[in-house]
Amino acid sequence: MAVISYIEAITEALREEMERDSRVFVLGEDVGVRGGVFRATMGLYERFGPDRVLDTPLTESAIAGVGVGVAAYGLRPVAEMQFADFILPAFNQIVSEAAKMRYRSNNDFTCPLVIRAPYGGGIHGALYHSQSIEALFASVPGLKIVAPSTPYDVKGLLKSSIRDEDPVLFLEHKRCYRLIKDEVPEEEYTVPLGQAAVKREGTDVTVITYGLMVHHTMQVAEELIRDGISVHILDLRTLVPLDREAILEAVAKTGKVIIIHEDSKTGGFGGEIAALIAEEAFYELDAPIQRLAGPDVPAMPFNAVLEREFMLNTEKIERAIRTLAEY
Amino acid sequence: MIIDLTMPQLGESVTEGMIARWLKRPGDVVKKYEPICEVATDKVNAEVPSTQSGILQEIIVAEGETVAVGHVICRLQIEQIEPEIANIDVVEEFETEELEEASPSMKKRYTPAVLRLAEENQIDLSRVRGTGMGGRITRKDVLRIVEGKKEIEPPVEHTDQQESEPIISVEKKTVSSQTEDEVIPLTPIRRTIAERMVKSKQEIPHAWVMMEADVTGLVAFRQRMKEEFREKEGISLTFMPFFIKAVVDSLKEFPQLNSVWQEDQIIHKKRINISMAISTERELFVPVIHDADEVSLLGLAKSVHRLKEKTFRGKLEVSDMQGGTFTVNNTGAFGSVASQPIINPPQAAILSFEAIVKRPIVIDQMIAIRDMMNLCLSIDHRIIDGWISGRFLQAVKQRLEAYGPDTKGIL
């Protein structure tokens, strides 16, 4: 098996899906000749030509809107938002059109649109290049949200998203792009949407998380085991639809739960998970449910010191897990 | 206004204390610094003074109960500067709220998981010892019982004691007592002795050196001086001050022996504080003579006397127990002629003075009857080696042998 990076896995998934299905095409700002600002679409323009690798104007509303239209027409667009921060001009198209297409047409039309969006901070990107946006969309029924943490998952999940009949918001943590590498099989595989993955079995504290925080938590768990604290880690992988069974199982492993995400705390997705646990797994709880999240501050600071303060890191995660373990 | 009084920190390594006796009852007027209760810790018994003047409102921790340092033990109503009559109702309401919030004990705070498991498995939670924060019973505590790995506490008496150290719990599980046997619960002191001895023997590579000293001169000197000394000083002249003096002077010569072991380093202590093993019928105490190098033989005699008195009366204070750098042990007092003392961690060595016995000894090709005594030294071989220990012991020996019946100017 080849060891490839998170972003190489995305490129592979796109290429393989475009080869497999001629209806699949990509569109976005600089995805063509340039190969994407992060190089996610490298080589696709050369391989598939300008008709299937579309450079668009700097108009996110159009990128999403065109996607909705061509999806209704029978194609399978993969739209790229250059940064997740820029998705807001397309909010209306995504929320009012893409998410509702199947429902309002009474199943006559579906919207097999994938919107890829690099999100997250810690890359010195400041306020317009660091935001986490999952909570903005998680309350919209009809929209699926995927947030993989590893190259294996990102490839398998992107393929499943492209093949899915409904709109998928596909969130790629940009810090993972070149930082995270692992073995990815050369043969064809997919990872089904809506299934969380147990990344580590443990008995003291359960961590429920996704994206970059999975890696931080794995690292912390490795250190804490030396002090006899055994951490159970669940990587959600897909936020909507949520793998409720996996969450409840993970809670029952330890009775002590901490939900970790980089997005800010108030109204963050962690609140939804906490509510689910309180509703469904109350009698498994051995401690108040904890949320470790980004601060309720308008944006990621540019200043490196403040950026570190803003971002969750291994120290903050370790402290939170230790405190909960002692409870 | 009502304030909380908490279990004070009564020594370096003390983490909990048992309320031995309440000296005040709810409703009693308490002055600032006035003792409100007696606390027995694993090191000492001490009186806890009140931090404020006021009226004892409520006793939270009953006599015989052990709680962690910082745990609220009672509440005190203290005077407010200008009580406003109109606001009394509001104030009271506020206070009751505060009371509920302030209680840090988590022993009876059961989480849903704990309650469910207890009910499903019919476990009486009042008999379970919690290992969580504030003594909280955790899900794991209950699961351990379900899996049969942990014994349930007997319902009475020491439900509040901390989880036993491994050595003690192992004994508890393997030794079954017959009905005619008497089961003696561990006192805090006994528990400390047990823990420290296990720690010392497990951690410290003990090496042992024995030498014999001819103390005929010292015996004669004491014989000659003891009546006069008793008359003048009011206390009896024992051998102990002489032993300590010889040790202190030799430690000055070989400071390596006056060391403590700390993780990856050895610390040579500047102050010479001599720990002195004193046994009572039931327990062993090791009070400390601080700066023993700064006092005369007479001063040492008085310190030894004072510490013995305090020990037998149960009046040792925290300060009497702390900071020892080297331990001496008068095993001769009970007739021992050789012993292998266990080091008092983190110290580097311990020296036993064995019984003085008359023995035939060859001196200048003649056989003489001499007063002989064995010196038994245990050393922490991580810190010091045999060579330096031997020379140290030689130095002690020579100092003890230097006394004669007519030695002058030392008392």
TrEMBL record, chain A:
Record key words, sorted: Oxidoreductase, Thiamine pyrophosphate
Transketolase-like pyrimidine-binding domain sequence ranges: 4-179
Molecular-function annotations in GO: oxidoreductase activity
Protein name (record): Branched-chain alpha-keto acid dehydrogenase E1 component
CC cofactor: thiamine diphosphate
Cross-referenced InterPro entries: THDP-binding (IPR029061), Transketo_C/PFOR_II (IPR009014), Transketolase-like_Pyr-bd (IPR005475), Transketolase_C (IPR033248)
Gene3D superfamilies noted in UniProt: 3.40.50.920, 3.40.50.970
The UniProt record lists the keyword Nucleotide-binding: no
SMART domains: Transket_pyr
Aminoacyl-tRNA synthetase listed as a keyword: no
NCBIfam families reported in the protein's UniProt record: PRK09212.1 (NF006667)
Automatic annotation (TrEMBL), chain B:
Keyword tRNA processing: no
Stored Gene3D superfamilies: 2.40.50.100, Chloramphenicol acetyltransferase-like domain, E3-binding domain
Domain Peripheral subunit-binding (PSBD) intervals: 109-146
GO molecular function, one term: acetyltransferase activity
Enzyme Commission numbers on file: 2.3.1.-
UniProt-listed InterPro entries: 2-oxoA_DH_lipoyl-BS, 2-oxoacid_DH_actylTfrase, 2-oxoacid_DH_E2_comp, Biotin_lipoyl, CAT-like_dom_sf, E3-bd_dom_sf, PSBD, Single_hybrid_motif
Co-factor requirement: (R)-lipoate
Pfam family, one: Biotin_lipoyl
GO CC, any one term: cytoplasm
PROSITE patterns: BIOTINYL_LIPOYL (PS50968), LIPOYL (PS00189), PSBD (PS51826)
Keywords: Acyltransferase, Lipoyl, Transferase
Keyword Transferase included in the entry's annotation: yes
Residue ranges annotated for the Lipoyl-binding domain, each copy included: 2-77
The family this protein is said to belong to: Belongs to the 2-oxoacid dehydrogenase family.
UniProt name for this protein: Dihydrolipoamide acetyltransferase component of pyruvate dehydrogenase complex
Organism annotation: Seinonella peptonophila
